[in-house]
Write a structure and sequence with these properties.
Helices cover about 70% and strands about 0% of the residues. By secondary structure, it is mainly alpha-helical. Helix 2 runs antiparallel to helix 9, helix 3 packs antiparallel against helix 4 and helix 3 runs parallel beside helix 6. The chain is globular.
């Protein structure tokens, strides 16, 4: 596979907007490790090799356990994730695959048990932003270094 274009160089102001959103997410106060798990899981769903590589490394830097990283694609079937992380991962999957189930009320009720209203907004922003990055990286064939 060959890269199609460098979107960072081709439209720096557009990408700066995404970077500004990322900086906001970093200041939002959600657990860094959990956000990296969400980014990694969304990237797995979307099949974004660049983002999978990036966020696996970022998760390790945030102190994430290798065993949990290896089990992430099967998180429902492991005891490695707490209820808050499970709610975040399920919300991430539902929002990423929004056409499949339209983020059902039953899931919303589980998410509300573990997150405040502002945290749900910040989590959803993180989910939709990694989906945007995935689409840029996949469409323009951004390759892992």
């Amino acid at each position: 596979m060959q890269s199609r274009l460098d979107f960072f160089k081709s439209a720096p102001e557009a990408i700066k907007t995404l970077i500004d959103i990322e900086q906001h997410i970093a200041r939002a106060g959600l657990e860094k490790s959990m956000i990296e798990l969400v980014r990694l899981r969304v990237s797995q769903i979307n099949g974004c090799a660049y983002c999978i590589d990036q966020h696996a490394r970022d998760a390790r830097k945030a102190g994430e356990d290798e065993r949990r990283l290896m089990a992430l694609s099967a998180w429902r079937d492991t005891p490695f994730f707490n209820e808050r992380e499970r709610a975040a991962l399920e919300w991430a999957e539902s929002v990423t695959l929004i056409a499949d189930d339209h983020a059902p009320d039953s899931l919303w009720e589980r998410v509300e048990l573990h997150f405040t209203a502002s945290e749900i907004v910040e989590l959803t922003l993180a989910i939709t932003t990694i989906n945007t990055w995935n689409r840029f990286a996949i469409a323009f064939r951004k390759l892992p270094a």
